[in-house]
Amino acid sequence: MTVADAFIFYTVPVFLAINYFSHGLRNSRGGRPLKSGTPLKAAIMFAIIAFLMMLAGYSAAGIMEKYMNGRGEWIPFIMFMFIGFRLTMQGIRRKSGFRIFDIEQNSVIFAMSIALGINNLFAGVAIGFMAFTHAGFAGFLAVLVLIMSFSGLMYGNQFREGFGRKMEIASGTGLMIMALVVFWGR
Fold first, then answer.
1. Tens digits of per-residue pLDDT, 24-34?
2. Which of 95, 114, 7, 125 is closest to 50 using CA atoms?
3. What span, in angstroms and rounded, lies between the C-alpha atoms of 120 and 1?
4. Closest by Cα among 9, 183, 11, 18 to 88
5. Distance CA 50, CA 58 (A)
6. Got the DSSP string for the chain?
7. If you average pLDDT over every residue of the chain, what do you get?
């Protein structure tokens, strides 16, 4: 593993997990406190879906590679740039306020897991084209998502309102920089 590969392997999951942290902060702020057990239940669901979406993206990359005849060197650049731009714009457009959804309902937790996992699906495609070990990458991402989303849901009221927004913008910018590292560094 080259230095650029190690950098990508250990920083991309952090950037992706920050999105879960930001949404955890947002959903735990204001109003009544979350019920006991809700943060752990939501964090576990987020981690499982993040893991599965990453593996689905990696599998999709394997299928696409068969039909591309080795012309997939632009795919990681495009995917990381797309995810980064999406996270940055999401952070910029977000307005101050209270909870996004009622995170205490199981259907809401599942829907949020799928919605937040779309970024992991795209990242899985990028990782598939970069020929990383999918289980190691997805496992590392799942652990980070579990920790970050749980801490965001548990301690959301202790952070300022704009902190999660700034973190989201920073992670999106970081992923766009990562796209350039992938493009020029590999």
1. 877 776 666 77
2. 114
3. 22
4. 18
5. 12
6. --HHHHHHHHHHHHHHHHHHHHHHHHHHSSSSPPPTTHHHHHHHHHHHHHHHHHHHHHHHHHHHHHHHTT--TTHHHHHHHHHHHHHHHHHHHPPP-S-SS-TTSHHHHHHHHHHHHHHHHHHHHHHHHHT--HHHHHHHHHHHHHHHHHHHHHSGGGS-TTHHHHHHHHHHHHHHHHHHHHHHH-
7. 81
What is the C-alpha to C-alpha distance for residues 49 and 30, in angstroms, rounded to an integer? 26
Coil, helix or strand at residue 136: helix
Q: What is the pTM of this model?
A: 0.82
- Please give the torsion angle defined by the CA atoms of residues 10, 16, 18 and 19, in that order, rounded to the nearest 10 degrees: 180
Which pLDDT belongs to residue 53?
92
Query: Which structure tokens are listed for 42?
Result: 């939501």
